[in-house]
Amino acid sequence: MNSPESETNSTGYHSANPLLIVVSGPSGVGKDAILHRLKERGYPFEYVTTATTRSQRKKEKHSVDYHFMPVKEFQELLESGGFLEHANVYGNWYGVPRDPVKQALFKGKDVILKVDVQGAASIKKIVPEALFIFIAPPSLEELADRLRRRYTETASDLELRLKTASDEMQQICKFDYVVTNVSNKIDAAIENILAIVAAEKCRTHPRRVDI
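Predicted structure:
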């Protein structure tokens, strides 16, 4: 896939308007794994990392998986209008920094954001022309198995996350596309996402993102 061009040709038509791609879905569905694989394969997307006040988990890397920050620092950035969207999830704050998104789009780069379903709904109110992709599990039973294998949730936390996931699955109709992430077949999910992006680039009336 070629990186998007921001220059205007002689006809005044932008050959490839940059996309704001919002990837969402239930906790444990594999959003992080999908983004990591996209990065490994070298596709020219701009990945804007979400900030959070939650504790860093084992194997997570600061500024790669999340920008981990104290509550005070998060609140100061929030009060200055520094987040495109923010939400409190399971008692922790999450937010998408606004400036990196604006700068990347201005340079003509396609931007990928990973947010929860609540965050995707917030972004849709602000940027309705963004491209919204829901990552779904094959079943809630398989999602439960994935969450158990993470060993990061207590029994009560697991029950809450599965209840939330069930509710979030009811929001699929509010997204543009749904991609099912089957265990051990992540490359199939990647190919579906790339096909969606390719189709969007061929639209006769391209999305025009304004932040």
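Summary: The chain has one domain: 20-201.
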